[in-house]
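Batch job 17 of 40 flagged for manual review because the log was empty.
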Amino acid sequence: DEDIVGRSSGSDRRSHQKPKKSKSGKRTHRKRRSRGGNTPSQNEETLSETYSDSIMSSSFADRSVKREAKGPVQQLLISARLLLCNLPLSSAAISFSIVLLGTVWLKWAEETLPSCKEVSFHSSQCTFPEFPGCYFCDEYNPWYRLAKNFHAACGYVAGLSVLAFFAKAALCWRAFMDEMSSPTTASPMGLVFATVALGFAGKGPGALGAILVFLASFLHLVLVVWFIYMSLAYQTMPDPSWFANTIGLGLCAVKIWFYCPLPGHFLIVFTLMLTILYYPISLIRVALNEKMSATICWINMMAPAVPLYSLAIIMQPTFQQERPDISHFQTVQRSIYLPSMTCLFGLCIVGMISSVHGLIVRWKQISREEFSPAHAAYSFPLLMHAMAVQSYRSSLGFFAPADAVSPALKTALHVYWTVLVVAGTITALTCIVMYLAFLPSWVDVDTRDELEPPPPNETSMCNSVTYGESLIQPYVSPTILQANETGILIVSYDYQNDWFDLMRTRRIPAFGFEPMMSRRAFNRERNALKLFMGGQDVIQEGDEEEGDDMCFENELENGYG
């Protein structure tokens, strides 16, 4: 970050100057560099379109020529730095879905292959289990070896990919902290630590896996405290975007339990408390707040799935014995744990219904959206739900009396789990492929002709951002509106002057798991909020403030209306 500031001191000084005032006293915004005046077209185009350059445009051609002038090694270093500094936080969802793919298909192989037999959790035949359940399998079976290698590869790929966020924090500290300073943009961060815990548990030379799991668990706990503090400061209310940073702590708890049961139990109890507090509020808000985005609604099924998956692990005895006498422990399991898990399984079904209903109600919104970093939110909830269902099935088969579970229920659960695994895999692979295809345009952004958005403390929403949310609200959250107005702080490479520059942009079409709003939608929702607050500073359509026209002028110049 210091290197970026050093090489772009002139631009940085400009970015910290106070905005100029017009004769009417209204704020205008800076323009970096202009190519000329293109005529405006339609007014309904989304801001997300501003990040894409036409292949036929002169800007794209000039930029391509200057790229080709760089040597391959220099261009590789530039691209690597842009990737690390501008990697969207939502890409943690892609890494998380990859590690879940490895787990669910390993469980599929262990359950379906006749050479795999379920064994006691603390049996000597159970080395380091990938929960739920523990199986002893024929290592020479080619299908099992394929599933095991796929699981290991998914763990390493996912774990190593999220380590890029630690490099981002080291190289581009200001950009990283800018994202972490808002509940909207910081919402995917918890998936980074969950992926590290799931991907490296039981792996690595020596105690490396254990160290990474403990470190990820500690950092996730710190994140929970920080995110709750931010939410209290902004007066936001629980919704599904909270779950990765709060309830997602239960995934770290499962893995830390393997090494040290006591802190694992503590984190699982903490996760259950957060689920009891947040999930009912989230269910109500998803059902009754139509202005909540579809990507956020889809995550709703995650909340009960994490504690159900976590609770299944603490049903296991914590002592090491080949054939333990667990009669008393089984009594506790059948009288306390299994009813609790059944209740959580019921909440999982409710969460699935809520998520599907949220998509159906918002289908028009989905059909108008372009693919953006926010759409990574679709990649992992089904797989997480599948793991929870498998945990419940495994617990029923291992702890419940043989005659207590009807064959029809077992069959229904197996069919449901199979559908979830297949549907979740298709959804995850689709999101992964599309995300990787669009990723270059999100990390190497041409901002030369864009008006630099204002910093958060200079937006028109800065005095309203702490107004807060309500259980049922007719307006979009002020934090989301502020994120749309201020954009994202990124590192941009100036190919003409050969330097890196730190600047804000709206050409990355998402903020966390929230897709970017259109200009007209932003003005409409801001007016709705102002009216709800008392009708002050309402801006009529077609009579926007000069500052707001300047904010969005880059759309007009590029013909995006």
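Reviewer: the log was empty due to a logging misconfiguration, but the result itself is present. The two ends are 35 Å apart (CA to CA). Unflagging and moving on to job 18.
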